[in-house]
Structures are given as C-alpha cells and as structure tokens.
Amino acid sequence: MTTLLQINASLNNGNGQSSQLANQFVAAFHQRHPVAKIIVRDVAAADPVPHLDAERFGAFTTKPEQRTARQRAVVAYSDAMIDELRQAKVIVLGLPMYNFGVPSQLKAYFDHIARVGVTFSYTDKGPVGLLTGKKVYVFAARGGLYAGTPMDTQTRYVRDFLGFIGLRDVEFVYAEGLAISPESREAGLAKAAAEIARLAA
Ligand SMILES: Cc1cc2nc3c(=O)[nH]c(=O)nc-3n(C[C@H](O)[C@H](O)[C@H](O)COP(=O)(O)O)c2cc1C
Fold first, then answer.
1. pLDDT in tens, 22-35
2. Atom of ligand 1 nearest to the CA of 146
3. 124-128, 135-139, 191-195: lowest mean pLDDT where?
4. Which of 19, 46, 112, 169 is the most exposed place for a label (fewest CB within 10 A)?
5. What pTM was estimated for this model as a whole?
6. Which element (helix H / strand E) includes 24?
7. Using CA atoms in the order 30, 14, 9, 91, what is the torsion angle rounded to 10 degrees?
8. Are the C-beta atoms of residues 71 and 58 closer than 8 Å to each other?
9. What is the 3-state composition of the chain as percent helix, strand, coil, each rounded to the nearest 5?
10. Ligand 1 center to residue 170 CA distance, Å?
C-alpha cells in the first residue's frame, strides 16, 4: 500500500491556497487508491525549516564520530525528513509563489534534503539522484499568470531540484490569476480542480 507525503509550504499553514489544493488532491487520491499512511510535513508555518548556516551545513560534511551534539541533532532532523521521502511512493507539494520564487522555507527544506551520498551522489557521468521510483504532484498557487512563460522560473527550478535528487516523474497543476479579479480567481481554481479530479482518478 502507498505511503503519501504531503509537503505544505505556505506561510498560511493549512489555509494557504496551495495547501488546500494539495488537500483536495490527497482526499481524491485517497478515495480511489489504497493509502497506508499519509505524512504531512509543513515546512513553512507549523514546523518551519531553519535556514542553512555554516554550523548546520558543517554537520553534514563532518564525520559522524566527530560531530558535536548540536550537529548530531541537525543530521537527525535532516535524516528524519529524508526518511519521510524514502517511505513515500507519492509526494504531494503545495507550492505558493512568493516574489517570483519558492517560499524561503521550502528552499531551506531543499537545503536539508540535498545530501551527497544520501539523496544524490556524484559519479564519473555526473550527479545521480537516489530517491527514485516515486511520483510527485505539485500544486502551484499564484496571484498572477506565469505558467508557460519565461517568467515562470519557479517551475524550472523546482523540476530541476527534484530531478537532481532522483524525483523525475513530476506533474504540475497551476491555480493562477488568484489575485487579478474574483472571476480570474474562480477560473484559476476551477481549472485546477478539474486537473485534480483527472490526476486523482
Ligand atoms: C509575500 C508574497 C509574495 C507574493 N509574490 C507573488 C508573485 O511573485 N507572483 C504571483 O503571481 N503571486 C504572488 N503572491 C500571491 C501568491 O502566490 C498567492 O496568494 C498564492 O495563493 C499563495 O499561496 P498560499 O495561499 O498557499 O500561501 C505573493 C503572495 C505573498 C504573500
């Protein structure tokens, strides 16, 4: 049976539009597929991931027997988040756009799960991602309209990062135009809802 990991990255916690779209998908998916376990990781509001600093990054590069107690805790925290990714067959990401990019806490989460020898390795043929055989669904909520245009650097970045750690089967659903007008918001949410129903079937 499938374990599903839902990652919320909205500063509005479970009330964020991206989290709500992720919730909608998880509910629809759960109805149609056997799901053993749903893990929810809120990286921005409920349990914000701290930004990487020299001590934190140093924890990853220091040999286990030489780590300080604080560094051991940092590694254990990162290991726990990577373990959730390893357990999951399906990963659902609620992705707000903030100032053209990903929420900074989501970047901090990425910084804690990109670990050489753990989630990717370097080979003579280049980097190889180690988190394979998983499906990722991304629910992107935006005030404006960017999907499919050169201004949407967020999609490219998220796709590249996930691919780097081995997550190559990634589907994006967009709810756009949420801040333009009530009509545009409604249309953006309706389009996303239709996509959600199609993907969860
Ligand atoms: C700090 C902040 C920055 C934002 N920057 C952008 C932006 O650059 N482009 C955009 O289309 N919408 C922007 N928005 C609108 C959000 O993308 C939109 O409200 C979306 O629903 C956020 O997802 P959430 O509700 O899950 O937090 C911004 C919103 C906030 C709060």
1. 999 999 999 999 88
2. 11
3. 124-128
4. 46
5. 0.97
6. helix 17-32
7. -10
8. yes
9. 45, 25, 30
10. 22
